Amino acid sequence: MSNDTTTRSAAALAGRLTDIRRELHRNPELSHEEFETTRRIKSWLEAAGIRMADYPLKTGVIAEIGTGSPVIALRADIDALPIQEETGLPFASIVPGKMHACGHDFHTAALVGAAYLLKEQEQELKGTVRLIFQPAEEKAKGARQVIESGALEGVRAIFGLHNKPDLPVGTIGIKGGPLMAAADGFVVEVAGRGSHAAVPEAGNDPVLTAAHIVTALQSIVSRNVGALDSAVISVTKVNSGTAWNVIPEKAVLDGTVRTFDPAVRRRVRQRFDQVAAGVAAAFDTTAVVRWIEGPPPVYNDEGLAELAWREAERLKLLPVSPVPSLAGEDFAAYQQQVPGLFVFVGTDGPKEWHHPAFDLDERALPVAADFLAGTAIRAISNFAAEPQDPKEDFQ
Ligand SMILES: [Zn+2]
Ligand SMILES: [Zn+2]
Fold this sequence. Notes:
By secondary structure, the protein is α/β, with parallel strands linked by helices. Helix content is 34%, strand content 24%. The protein folds into two domains: 5-180 and 297-394, Aminopeptidase (3-Layer(aba) Sandwich), CATH 3.40.630; 182-292, Alpha-Beta Plaits, CATH 3.30.70. An eight-stranded mixed β-sheet has the order 1-2-4-3-5-16-6-15, with helices on both faces. The two termini are 44 Å apart.
């Protein structure tokens, strides 16, 4: 499994990291239920003599290597999805209806690998690397729980990664600025007046209104968002009615809005509310829009992106400037607190994230481990050179 783009230490770890990834893959656990995953991560870290840090988390693990400041955090997410696996792999999920279809098993194994590499160099570390194995990313809740536990306190910068099926192994997608989208949800409740299907004039048809709202919403991206800005509006659920010959009382639409720019996000929401209310009024019905606030955009620190790019080159990896993804990622929550960098690691997979046949090339495991460890060390030496906050002398 060795890969000529990784350091000798990382290449030596490749077999072990593959075993770890496959054990996680076989035993997926959903968001907030990652109890066995938590136990496994602790045992892998403790076997290498890595110390646990005590933060109140029900699932997930925080551990540390080195001492003192600066503190650099490395984050991996650990949860799986409610999807029935269809890969046919010998190490496929043994849990019906659950699968690591986003590759968080890969992220976890890569961070364990980075921990092993950093532990080997602990004596030379001029600061602390805090390892964050975060629960419940898929529900966009875990990052917030980690922040509330206090595990981000004192952190100077945070790094995280996601596997990327459309990038080849050995590449690292690094860019400053927006990388992943704000992912808001919406529910539109259209209220009309029911009647016999043969006597529509006696009612106000919410199905007709909902159909017009779905169509009119699509004008927002084409008419209210600049051609060089990005937004997506997808209506993904339409619910109404109980019988073929009855005009129902109401119709409900669900879906998601994806944006990168906060101003575009505000504008899309404002137009969305106007379009829903205006179309409903035109058909003598009413529409109430409820917003489900998702994670903000993943917005990368330019300085950290440069630092990571240099480290990727030193490791003889191929840094590339990636196309941003309209998917959401709760890593964004950390970036609201401290400077952060989220990168894509090429895994050359057959299918996109969340597909039942999702898989990845495990040769990317030592690449990711090497990159995380190297970037943490580079960040520590970078920030250790900065003038210290006098308060820290007394800690
Ligand atoms: Zn996912
Ligand atoms: Zn994911």
